[in-house]
Amino acid sequence: MKFIPPMTANQKAWITSNGSWSSWEPWERCSLTCGGGSQSRMRNCTNPPRDWGGERCHGPSRMNQSCNTNHCPVNGGWNGWSPWSICTKTVSGIQIRFRECSNPKPAYGGEHCNGSRALVRECNKISRCHEGNIQMVKSVRVNFNCIG
């Protein structure tokens, strides 16, 4: 075994080791999938670490940035039904009412409203069916089958 004598102050100053940063770690997962989240990444003062009174690493150990700043999809929602229309005939007619997919309107790839935009019902019904049971009401073809 070889004997190593203690170092002098000048020898210690000569072998000091200043700290240096490691490479940045990968970015963490974004906090949100849309609408503006944040993410960070880290680095360590270990390449090499500070030793023998050397200088610490300069600069930040953490970096932050915005991510997924795209708009979130907005799914459509129905507004309320319009009032029923006036009956199309005085005997065995139909009435119709509408609603719009605008509460809210679909946006940024969101889903359109599910379900029907229009409702149809009989009005002024009698027990005997009459001819002419297909009507055009506000540009919507309505096929009404008469049941005896």
TrEMBL record:
The keyword Ligase does not apply. It holds the Pfam family TSP_1. InterPro entries: Compl_asym_regulator, TSP1_rpt, TSP1_rpt_sf. PROSITE patterns: TSP1. SMART domains: TSP1 (SM00209). Keywords: Disulfide bond, Repeat, Secreted, Signal. It is found in: Secreted. This is SUEL-type lectin domain-containing protein. It comes from Pocillopora damicornis (Cauliflower coral).
